[in-house]
Amino acid sequence: SAGTLPDDWDRPLAGRVAVVTGAARGIGASIADTLARDGATVVAVDVPAAGEQLATVANRVRGTALQLDVTADDAGARILEHALQRHGRLDIVVHNAGITRDKLLANMTPDKWDSVLAVNIASQLRINEALLTSGDFTDAPRIVSLASTSGIAGNRGQTNYAASKGGVIGMVRATAPLLTAFGGTANAVAPGFIETDMTARIPALTRQVARRLNSLQQGGLPVDVAETVAFLASPAAGGVVGRVLRVCGQNMVG
Ligand code: NAD
């Protein structure tokens, strides 16, 4: 009624429904937390093997969990069905699920190429296609894709990963014009070294150098990435289209 505002009137994502892939841990879990803080209802997606961690995140953000491998043929359809059935709409998709299978090029076996390209880029393409052709996506969709500084500058031992993340940047640039026609945006976030399980496996010396090079004088944290994703998903970023925002604590060239 006149004179009363809903409790969450000042939260930028109030009333929005967001899907976050790879949400069971690391950067994805932090993105789920941050979007929920900003008022969104979150669908947390991850593989069945991560089910327990995924349920913890979904409960924490008062959203729902969807156990799903993003490389499944029907991943886009299942995401849409879940969001519509449980929450009545879908506004924001954060493509965060990603893997590394590092090896120097001479030892980069086909399975290492295929698995990394399948999870990191092909899944994003196919889910976007399913959502954008369904007619059931919101009228002002926000798509935020996790790229990486490896996809811009390359990284020794990561030809497959760099190719996948460079591919994400190209895909975002090509998708953005399709979305602007109906008030939507697509953008990418390119983190540098962030302290997660993914980077816990890299050599100690490499980690030490990465921390020293960062303006923060430490490794980046998942929340640094999550805040940038939340901005790109928010109404405030409505004019930011087809961009790559680096969150790497460095003034990188290239
Ligand atoms: P992480 O390994 O800690 O977490 C990744 C999550 O994705 C896991 O929960 C995993 O189960 C899930 N996942 C993997 N394959 C999946 C699939 N097929 N279907 C559904 N879920 C799947 O990784 P992170 O460090 O949090 O990375 C998150 C994203 O950020 C990735 O896209 C990664 O490439 C990107 N990134 C990370 C860094 C970094 O330094 N950590 C830097 C640049 C970019």
TrEMBL record:
Full-protein residues shown: 197 to 450 of 451
Protein name from the UniProt record: 3-oxoacyl-ACP reductase
GO molecular function annotations of the record: oxidoreductase activity, acting on the CH-OH group of donors, NAD or NADP as acceptor
Domain Ketoreductase: 16-192
Family (UniProt): Belongs to the short-chain dehydrogenases/reductases (SDR) family.
Coiled coil (residue ranges): none
